[in-house]
Amino acid sequence: MPVDFKKSNAPQNTITWDAVKMSEKTNNVYEMVNIITKRANQISVEMKDELGKKLQEFASYTDNLEEVFENREQIEISRYYERLPKPVSIATQEYTQDKIYFRRPKPKTEPKHKEENNEAPIAE
User: Fold this and answer.
1) What angle in degrees, to the nearest 10, is found between the helix axes of 87-96 and 29-56?
2) Is 3 within the bounds of a domain?
């Protein structure tokens, strides 16, 4: 699920969330944290890929010291990404606004007929 980082209004500063209230959807605080963490990892990978693609345009394969200090566009792109809300903030906001789809895997069931051991019991 791609996210538009420019339109995200997630908080950039740390805020306190009521974990008990947030976990009402899952009835488990740990499951809620796991869902938010997995989504934050997805967002982080997307952000890193996008930043890498933009910075790749400025890649120089020669060691020119003047170019390193004078590349203002590259510095501005990096600063823009530093000012974006953190992936955890974006994921938490998506979770609280019901924008994250999650499901529980079906539990594995035991086979109806277990293979029986055909050996005779050992007498002591």
Assistant:
1) 130
2) no
